[in-house]
Amino acid sequence: MTGPVVVGVDGSPASVTAAWWAAREAVERHLSVLLLHSWTTQPLDVPVAQEALTKQRCGGRVLQRMEAELLHRHAELSVATELVSESASKALVEAGGTATLLVLGSRGHGSVAGFLLGSVSLHVLGLAQCPAVTVRAGDPAVEDGRGHPAALGRNEVVVGVQEPSPAADPLLEFAFAAAEVHGARVRAVRALPPSSLVTHRHADPPGEGYEADERTRLDADLAPWQEKFPGVEVVDHVARGSASQVLLAASARGRLTVVGRRRHPSPLTWKLGPVAHAALHHLPCPVALVPHD
Fold it and tell me: Domain UspA spans what residues (predicted)?
C-alpha cells in the first residue's frame, strides 16, 4: 500500500513517542505521515469545561508543534495534519480505511493508553482495516530519536504463526516486508500445546515426532515468503507452552512483534484474542496487529 502512516496525537508523552516511531517508519518505507487529533477527545489533563473554540485552538497547536518536530528530525518527510470533531476512535478507524499503518501510543506497562484511553484504544485496534501498531512510551529505541533497535540487540521481526496459510499469509507478508525494510531477521513462532506430550507419548523422546511435523508445517508456510523476500533471514521457532507464553519469550530480541486478529463483520462483535492482549500489555517493543479473514 502507499497510503499514509496515520498516528493519533494529543500531546501526551505516549502519543509523542508514537509519532516519533511513525515518522521513522514512514521515512524508511517512503510514505507520508498524517497526524490526527480529535479536539473532542482530550487527554485527562485538559479541563472538560473548556469551550469548544479553546479546545480546537489547543488541538491545532498540538498538531503544529508535532509537525514541526517531525520535520526537524526528518527534513525529507511529508507530513499532513488533520483536526477532527468526531470521536478519536471513529476518526482513526475511518482513517485506517486508506492508511498503510495506524499508530497509537501506549503508556508504560499495563493497559493500552495514550491518544486513546483503555477500552477505546482496544476498540480501534479491534476494528482497524489496516495493520495497527502500538508504541510504548519509554522505549529506548524510540524515545531520544537517536536510539536504534539493532544497537540494543533488537533486530528481529517476531511473528506468531499458529494457523496455517492462508490465514497466516497477511501476517507473514507484513512481517517479511517490515524485516526487508529494516534489514532485520524474521522469527516465526509456533506454540505446541503441552498436552501433545501426552497425545504423542509413544514417540522417543515423547512428542519429538509431533514437534518435527509442526516444524515442517511451519517451514512450508514460510517457504513462499522466503522465495518472495530472498534477502530476509528467517528463524523458525517452535516451542511448547501456551501461545501467549511462547510468543512473549520469543520476542526478547524483537524490534517489532506481529500478531494476527480476525476481521469482524460488525463493529458490535469485535474482540481481541488472548495472544493479542498479552502482547499489547507485556511486550516492551512495538506490537503490530494485522487483520486477517
Answer: 1-136, 156-291
Domains of the chain (ranges; CATH) run 5-136 (3.40.50.620), 151-292 (3.40.50.620)
pTM of the complete model: 0.87
Q: List helix spans (H) across the chain.
A: 13-29, 52-73, 88-95, 119-127, 169-182, 196-199, 208-228, 243-250, 274-282
What sign does the dihedral 101-121-156-163 (CA atoms) show? negative
